[in-house]
Amino acid sequence: KEAWQLEALAAAADAEPERTGTQGPGSRPSSAHQLGAHHAGPPLGPLEGELLWTVRQMDVHRKQIQIHQEQLSILERRHAELLVAVSSRTHSLNAGRGSPTGSSMSNT
Q: Which residues contact 47 (CB under 8 A, 6 or more apart)?
């Protein structure tokens, strides 16, 4: 890909914070920023351009992973809450039937 295409792809990725997340205060600078996200030097060769694009894509995916980990954590907490609620309700129903174990399969 041409260097301008790589820049356009990277800019598009940076312009979608709802997909890639945003860095919070105190976050380390991305690898792309460390490499010079706004390249002001001589034109990039094909390898350097691809390297910059690859680093930017890695940063995008790291941000996506962070967002997914946060979403997973929220889902895991809700899952635990639901298990407790279902367990409490099941325990209450079984206690009302006089079953000491709460199991309806204790006919053996």
A: none
Q: Coil, helix or strand for 99?
A: coil
Question: Comparing C-alpha atoms, which of 63, 52, 56 is closest to residue 19?
Answer: 63
> Rounded to whole angstroms, how far apart are CA atoms 11 and 28?
19
- Are the C-beta atoms of 3 and 49 separated by less than 8 Å? yes
pLDDT tens for 69-106 read 999 999 999 999 999 999 998 888 887 766 555 445 54
Instruction: Specify burial of residue 14 (Cβ count, 10 A radius: 0-12, 13-18, 19+).
Output: middle
Residue 75 token pair = 């889902």
Tokens of 44: 């990039």
Q: Residue 14 and residue 68: Cα distance in Å, rounded?
A: 18
Q: What's the confidence (pLDDT) of residue 92?
A: 82
The two tokens of residue 57 are: 């894509």
